[in-house]
Amino acid sequence: MRLKFGFGYFELMFCIATMLLSIRAHGVIQIGYFVLVVISLSYLVMKFWMYNASPWRRIHFSAKIYYSGLLGEEWRRSQSEGREPQLTRALRDFSGKMLSSERREILADDRRAS
Hints:
The chain is built from five helices and no strands. By secondary structure, the protein is mostly helical.
């Protein structure tokens, strides 16, 4: 289950547990737990920042990743057929997918209820 901040209870509990363990430990073990605290806090801040990012950026990033996959498929097809890659084919596939019902899976938003 996700909190309204973009990360779940497990991530938050892990961060709290490592903080408590770093306070109670001594020596090298305390340094190890402190490193885990820094890593887990960085992860929580990153997840919070990405969750609250502008909707355009989230959708644009997903669309860029999907288009690069389509372009890679067109490149592989053109190599196997012995022709030059055509960007218009990849763009046609991309625009067709964006206008179809598959758009929801391509541009999946992480804010949907789990």
